[in-house]
Amino acid sequence: MTSRPAAGGFFAAMAKRRPQLTAWLYLAAALALLITFTYVPVASMIWYSFTNWDGVSPDPQFVGWSNYGQLFSRPELFQVFFVSLYYLVASFVQIVLALYFAVVLSFSTWFRNLFKGVLFFPYLINGVAVAFIFLYFFRQGGTLDSVLAFFGVHTGQFWLGDPDWVNVSLSGVSVWRFLGLNFVLFLGAIQSIPQELHEAASLDGASRWQVFRHIIAPGIKPVLSLSVILAISGSLSVFEIPYIMTGGSGESLTFVIQTVKLAFQFNKMGLASAAAVVLLAMVLLITWLQRRLVPEERTDLT
């Protein structure tokens, strides 16, 4: 006699939990992929960072903190982070330019859609193709020298071979390629601001600077914060463009290129894993600090 209420209570509880079970079932495939291809490799990388694994031997030996000690005690391994300063400055230049074009093109201007396509088009080009395009652009007697010669400037500069100009040139390529991404993010955020606010400001006689300061800037603060995080993390993990254009030679060696060379050229997979863990920790720390110093908040413009 007592089994029926118990069974009824069980099925009633299952019926209440059905929405939660359905949500978990929908998330199961994505979680499985995330754990398999993200968290498990990260855990393996952390483990290998405490070993002297060469990438081939089946039995890596545990060496403790030795790899991390090498990273921080050998200046040639850690000083490549200074190269990231060029890309960091370029990233903020890129954000300023993208924000400027997004604000200008959010107003009614001639050929607005054409300019949107022109700004976003470089981001659609494959990174390898971009690198080869700019290899010809920066070579001696290439496009840049031809343009400068047209204006009467004859430099004869070897842009990618000069230590003073190689990182400036490469970071300029990054600005050209990723400007469209920030532009689309800012433009989407600006267009999500209610149009009534723009109309009210126009009726009140507000200038475009006043519209930007009091309406657009508060409305796109979350996207601007995201762009700053992407800029900092991207400047620390630059790889594609300098690796293809210069191979990381000379002063253009970045931290990620050095890590790849340690792993696959010198077979120091343990040391390379430690470098990757340090880079991951730096990105997470910078993201946390940014969230703490500039907390995400939504401004009610209405």
Structure description:
- The mean pLDDT is about 85.
- This protein has 14 helices and no strands.
- The protein is mainly α.
- It starts with a helix and ends in a 9-residue tail after the last helix.
- It has a domain of about 160 residues: MetI-like fold, CATH 1.10.3720.10.
- It is flat and about 75 Å long.
| CATH homologous superfamily placement of the domain at 83-243 | MetI-like
Mean pLDDT: 84
Runs in which pLDDT lies below 50 for 5 or more consecutive residues are none
Just give the CATH class of the domain at 83-243. Mainly Alpha
The sequence of SSEs as H and E is: HHHHHHHHHHHHHH
CATH topology label of the domain at 83-243: MetI-like fold
Q: What is the SS-derived class?
A: mainly alpha
Q: What is the radius of gyration computed over CA atoms, rounded to a whole number of angstroms?
A: 26 Å
Topology at a glance:
Elements: H1 3-48, H2 66-73, H3 75-78, H4 84-106, H5 112-124, H6 127-138, H7 143-150, H8 166-191, H9 195-203, H10 208-219, H11 221-236, H12 240-245, H13 255-264, H14 269-293
What is this entry, summarized?
By secondary structure, the chain is mainly alpha-helical.
List keywords for this structure.
MetI-like fold, 72% helix, 14 helices, 302 residues
